[in-house]
Automatic annotation (TrEMBL):
Cofactor(s) demanded: pyridoxal 5'-phosphate
Organism: Streptomyces lycii
The keyword Transferase belongs to this UniProt entry's keyword annotation: no
Positions of the Aromatic amino acid beta-eliminating lyase/threonine aldolase domain: 42-288
Superkingdom field: Bacteria
Protein name, UniProt field: Threonine aldolase
Keyword entries, A-Z: Pyridoxal phosphate
Entry's family note: Belongs to the threonine aldolase family.
């Protein structure tokens, strides 16, 4: 497919999703610049429109850093423009402190899949994999590593495996196994905010297992962008020095900081309700696909661990994407968004489902009706 045609199809999808009045979530990419500015202005009013803007990370950015460290129970936190930069800096700092440049992590983790080999190229780090199973590594697998490593990185939840989480005891045992090897533990907590219901522990308890934690402000909280790296005060101070070296000390960041603070106020308290309702949506999808006689399907995990999960269907991605756009345009209803057929066997495609505030209005019957309507368009 030519780039021009791909761009046209993407624009059509985003327009259809933006105009739809029934959806399970409302990603920022479907909103206009004007609507985003209206929301930002409204959010800024809560944080003092008369206050001066930040300069190189002071003011409202420091307010955000203090808020994050207070929420997850660490000594300090540093704002970063991207999570990619935050994690590279964290792992680089720990390599220097431990004297070991090897990082143990899952091969599906973000640095391995989405950062273009940045760990070895930029920081001189190398990686080892305790497991290739589509889940977090177990304590016995961590103990079985046959070479020393300085840092164990755990992604909570592991997105590429279906936003999966371990149980609390499994997580604690995995951390203990790393401690036995004199390694530090870093949490990729981009989506840490929604992990508490499944793990049955508070955010400070979860973060307290690790030596450092990264969190995102846009993946679950609806912020414009940005991330924070949290941990001991001396570690965060060092991370800020590397942030400067990496070009992450921006002149002004107040729009991102304001949107992140608003997300902490507005979305964080609602995440447990999203996680709970995702279970209703997932069960309704499974029942509806089965009732429709779908030749093969998978909702994974069957009971979601967070408010996000995967759906797999035995059709080409182009077919499913076209059906989804038509459903949005003709009915004003968005059940599924972008499908991908490059992550599984031939003829099988996968999409990620996210349930946020708009999705709370969907009953199981609404989901079933949406599936029936969607599959009719697929078969057409």
């Amino acid at each position: 497919m030519a780039n021009g045609q791909r761009d046209e199809e993407r624009a059509r999808r985003l327009t259809a999703w933006g105009r739809a009045d029934r959806k399970l979530s409302a990603p920022a990419a479907t909103e206009t610049v004007g609507r985003q500015l209206e929301r930002l202005a409204a959010d800024a009013a809560a944080y003092g429109l008369g206050n001066r803007t930040d300069l190189y990370g002071d003011g409202v950015v420091e307010t955000l850093e203090d808020r994050v460290s207070g929420l997850i129970g660490t000594e300090a936190a540093a704002f970063f423009p991207t999570g990619t930069m935050a994690q590279q800096v964290a792992l680089r700092c720990w390599a220097g402190r431990t004297g070991n440049a090897t990082v143990a992590l899952h091969p599906l983790a973000h640095p391995e899949r989405w950062e273009r080999g940045a760990l070895p190229v930029l920081a001189g780090l190398r990686t080892v994999h305790p497991t290739t199973e589509p889940r977090l590594p177990l304590a016995e697998e961590i103990r079985a590593l046959d070479e020393p490593y300085g840092t164990l990185m755990l992604e909570l939840p592991l997105r590429e495996a279906g936003f999966v989480l371990p149980g609390w005891d499994e997580l604690a045992e995995a951390v203990a196994a790393a401690r036995e090897a004199d390694a530090v533990v870093h949490l990729d907590g981009a989506r840490l905010w929604e992990c508490a219901p499944h793990l049955g522990r508070s955010l400070p308890e979860i973060a307290g297992l690790a030596d450092s934690v990264y969190v995102s402000f846009y993946k679950s909280l609806g912020g414009l962008s940005g991330a924070a790296l949290a941990g001991p005060g001396s570690f965060v101070a060092e991370a800020k020095a590397w942030r400067h070296r990496y070009g992450g000390l921006l002149f002004q960041q107040w729009p991102v900081a304001v949107s992140a603070l608003a997300g902490l106020d507005r979305e964080l308290p609602r995440l447990p309700s999203y996680v709970a309702h995702a279970k209703t949506v997932a069960a309704a999808l499974s029942e509806a696909f089965g009732a429709a006689g779908t030749p093969w399907f998978r909702v994974w995990p069957q009971v979601p661990h967070t408010h996000e999960f995967q759906v797999w269907l035995p059709y080409p991605a182009d077919t499913l994407n076209a059906a989804g756009v038509r459903q949005a345009e003709e009915t004003g209803r968005v059940l599924f968004r972008t499908w991908d057929d490059g992550s599984g066997p031939p003829g099988v495609s996968m999409t990620e489902v996210t349930v946020t505030a708009p999705g709370l209005e969907w009953t199981a019957a609404d989901v079933a009706a949406g599936v029936t309507d969607f599959l009719e368009r697929v078969r057409d």
